[in-house]
């Protein structure tokens, strides 16, 4: 029986792929068996999904084959869906087999949080995967076609986006940019199209300074977006939404971006969780499990101000690097490293040539922020794939 420790990584998102890449660099030959499990053969950039969802960019720009990112002589890639995590047995049940582990990294990403709003899980679309993005784009185009074939029924060109955080704002920006081309293609009067962005919180884009939020809303309002801030969606229907005020917006397209929770497999495995997120220790380990690490959307870490860090790609990447370091340390009986988040800045796209950004104590908006967004994206491409991936997937224009 092999005495080589077995490391299993569940999920090849930002955290999972960085963990795998750092492990293959740090581990010596035959020091550990590393298996990466992912339901698809590709890694995709969740921070890019709003563009192909709206139809302003190609899906191929948002994904890359995992085999191009890892050394398959050092990392075993298993394409499968995780069905169950059995911590007592140190096993992971897949749809087509079982994996045993000595060390487990749970990086399964998140799921849409509907907050119990009736009908939302049934009638709203979500921007969470390549397949969901493809569905949204095709659905939007279909609604324009139906509008011309069903006596100009207004609900077909009314679009409701729930949530005015990063995903919601970036999606409505891209959708607003796409509308003129769709109107021209389907002979629709642009003035008839309505985009509603509904947010229950008292402000859009939490975390940004008020002046940047105001700038973002001004830019998007000029592009045709109607904001309803401080108003919750009370119910989602087959043909629209009912707001807490009692107002009904008739729309054939509802896209929900209003919240993320951890993967339900985490709760089912018996971990104590809040909305599917586990409060991990300073080394990214699950409470009571020194051999199990949870990173990305499934982890909950508190910042120095006493609030949870938002589940962003930036924190998942840094967790992946720290997780790999601590796995190697565990195997070599060395001291693990405490996770310390280093905020590199925050950038939100507002469509073509527009954005807002905070880097250190400086703020940026407009064209400059839009270029910073591209720099951030290309930096990630460089980290995981070097210059060849930047040249292949980068957005330079």
TrEMBL record:
Keywords in alphabetical order: FAD, Flavoprotein, Oxidoreductase
Domain named FAD/NAD(P)-binding: residues: 6-320
Name this polypeptide is given: NADH dehydrogenase
Keyword Flavoprotein: yes
Similarity-based family: Belongs to the NADH dehydrogenase family.
Pfam hit, one: Pyr_redox_2
InterPro entries reported for this sequence: FAD/NAD-bd_sf, FAD/NAD-binding_dom, NADH-Q_oxidoreductase
Cofactor(s) needed by this chain: FAD
This protein's record includes keyword Oxidoreductase: yes
SUPFAM superfamilies: FAD/NAD(P)-binding domain
């Amino acid at each position: 029986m092999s005495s080589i420790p077995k490391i299993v990584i569940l999920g090849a998102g930002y955290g999972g792929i960085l963990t795998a890449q750092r492990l293959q660099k740090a581990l010596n030959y035959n020091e550990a068996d590393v298996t990466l499990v992912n339901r698809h053969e590709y890694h995709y950039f969740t921070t890019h999904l709003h563009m192909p969802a709206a139809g302003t960019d190609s899906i191929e720009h948002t994904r890359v084959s995992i085999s191009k990112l890892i050394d398959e002589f050092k990392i075993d890639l298993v394409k499968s869906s995780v069905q169950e995590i059995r911590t007592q047995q140190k096993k992971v049940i897949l749809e087509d087999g079982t994996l045993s582990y000595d060390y487990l990294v749970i990086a399964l990403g998140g799921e849409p949080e509907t907050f119990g709003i009736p009908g939302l899980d049934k009638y709203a679309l979500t921007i969470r995967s390549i397949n969901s993005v493809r569905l949204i784009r095709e659905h939007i185009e279909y609604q324009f076609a139906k509008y011309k074939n069903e006596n100009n029924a207004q609900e077909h060109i009314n679009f409701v986006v729930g949530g005015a955080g990063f995903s919601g704002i970036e999606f409505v920006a891209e959708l607003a940019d796409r509308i003129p081309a769709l109107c021209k293609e389907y002979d629709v009067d642009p003035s008839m199209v309505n985009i509603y962005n509904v947010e229950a919180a008292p402000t859009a884009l939490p975390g940004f300074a008020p002046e940047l939020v105001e700038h973002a809303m001004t830019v998007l309002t000029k592009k045709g977006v109607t904001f309803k801030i401080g108003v919750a969606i009370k119910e989602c229907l087959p043909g629209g939404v009912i707001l807490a005020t009692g107002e009904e917006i008739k729309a054939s397209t509802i896209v929900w971006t209003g919240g993320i929770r951890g993967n339900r497999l985490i709760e089912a495995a018996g971990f104590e969780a809040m909305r599917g997120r586990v409060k991990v220790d300073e080394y990214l380990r699950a409470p009571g499990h020194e051999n199990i690490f949870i990173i990305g959307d499934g982890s909950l870490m508190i910042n120095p101000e006493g609030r949870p860090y938002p589940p962003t790609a930036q924190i998942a990447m840094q967790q992946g690097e720290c997780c790999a370091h601590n796995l190697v340390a565990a195997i070599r009986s060395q001291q693990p490293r405490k996770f310390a988040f280093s905020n590199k800045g925050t950038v939100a796209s507002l469509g073509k040539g527009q954005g807002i950004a905070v880097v250190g104590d400086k703020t940026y908006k407009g064209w400059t922020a839009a270029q910073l967004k591209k720099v951030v994206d290309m930096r990630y491409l460089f980290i995981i794939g070097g210059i060849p991936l930047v040249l292949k997937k980068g957005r330079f224009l």
